[in-house]
Design brief:
four-stranded antiparallel sheet; alpha+beta; 13 helices; globular; 252 residues
């Protein structure tokens, strides 16, 4: 059995881990011998990113529910992709509350594990574009407004943001189709189409919610994404396409 002090130290600063997780940190003393060093380093990265997302709230008392913590440890420990780590860390940060009762994050942990790295990257790109296009135009995500947010992203810039070289290569490997259909499978986008020139899609409430949870803002209403006064730092290493448009604007 690994004692709790040693267990916390494995995941970085014991003080950081204790402060981030609250009493739930005691769970880290169990079963750690089964974790390889690489998995421990992956979890450490997620913890550090979660602490950064909390900002000033990190200094306030908070507890992460055991279900969320264990989901992040068991699944996030295999995460070597930077964006996937950002998503896990956002869910962890969103789940930290004074009472420790916010276990909705367990649902989003499972969703993230069902998505491939390409699907997560596409989701991040799509909803960052949604915010850029509509933050000052709309204020909520009603059914009517979501249909008016059907969005066009040129395929070339999208491939660049996805860190893919050529459409033909990506198409032959099934990356574009599987990424888009994968998001649709989880109800993260709808009304989509794609070809060698453009990709179109409409946002969904679930897609917005996952984006907020991944940003560490999971307890906010969906309309928070469209608030121009709020800050959503863009992830390093992703050149989100600029030449995107609302189909409604193009057709009118």
């Amino acid at each position: 059995m690994v004692d709790i002090g040693t267990g916390l130290a494995l995941f970085g600063s014991a003080q950081l881990v204790q402060k981030l997780l609250g009493p739930t940190a005691e769970y880290l003393g169990e079963g750690l011998r089964d974790l390889a060093q690489k998995r421990i380093l992956n979890i450490r990265q997620i913890f550090e990113k979660a602490a950064a997302k909390l900002g000033h709230d990190f200094d306030k008392h908070g507890v992460v529910p055991p279900r969320v913590l264990w989901g992040v440890i068991s699944e996030g420990s295999f995460c070597e992709d930077e964006i996937e780590a950002e998503y896990f860390s956002g869910v962890l940060a969103s789940s930290r509350t004074p009472e420790g009762r916010e276990n909705r994050g367990a649902t989003y942990v499972k969703m993230i594990t069902r998505l491939s790295n390409f699907e997560i990257r596409a989701h991040y790109i799509f909803y960052t574009v949604i915010r850029k296009l509509y933050a000052e135009k709309y204020h909520t995500f009603t059914l009517d407004l979501r249909s008016r947010m059907r969005t066009l992203i040129p395929t070339g810039p999208f491939l660049h943001a996805m860190d893919l070289v050529e459409y033909q290569e990506a198409r032959d490997a099934g990356v574009i189709s599987q990424s888009i259909w994968g998001l649709a499978r989880e109800n993260l986008i709808q009304d989509f189409s794609y070809n060698d020139k453009n990709i179109t899609f409409s946002p969904t409430v679930m897609g917005v919610q996952l984006y907020l949870w991944a940003q560490g803002k999971g307890r906010r209403h969906e309309s928070y994404l469209l608030d121009p006064e709020q800050s959503f730092p863009e992830l390093a290493g992703i050149s989100v396409p600029e030449s995107c448009n609302s189909l409604e604007d193009i057709e009118t």
